[in-house]
Fold Phosphoribosyltransferase domain-containing protein.
Amino acid sequence: MADEREILTYEQFGVAVRDLAQMVVDDGYEPDLILSIARGGLGLGMGLGYALGVKNLSAVNVEFYTGVETRLDVPIMLPPTPAAVDLSGFKVLIADDVADTGKTLEIVRDFCADHVAEAREAVIYEKPWTVVRPAYVWRHTEAWIDFPWSSLPPVSRS
């Protein structure tokens, strides 16, 4: 399984954003805020913000994956986190790149639960074993995903 790869290009990412936005609109959901999970969900959150005409964007940083198929025991929400008062009564769309284990989405959904009117999740990819079933999914896969923003090593001085 580790050798199989799902390759997402920047062009496909653009299609995914528009397709997910259309799913949200077709469902009649009108989020007041898009909450992106950093780092992987930042691009999706920005794209959905433009595609849905939502200017109220926020981010939460959750650390879980430390490498290819290696992760911490549990996800950790890193500061700063949005103040609960900033989310009060909002309809929130939580954006992330992938629902793999679903633990990252779960911690963010649970963080929002007591403060928002409603929260739904949008992801580019969903894996069959995730503990959270996002409301909006572009594609399903069992493979490791090479995202265009993380498939190359960080830029360094030569």
Q: What stands out?
A: The chain has a mean pLDDT of 89. Residues 10-26 form the longest helix (17 residues).
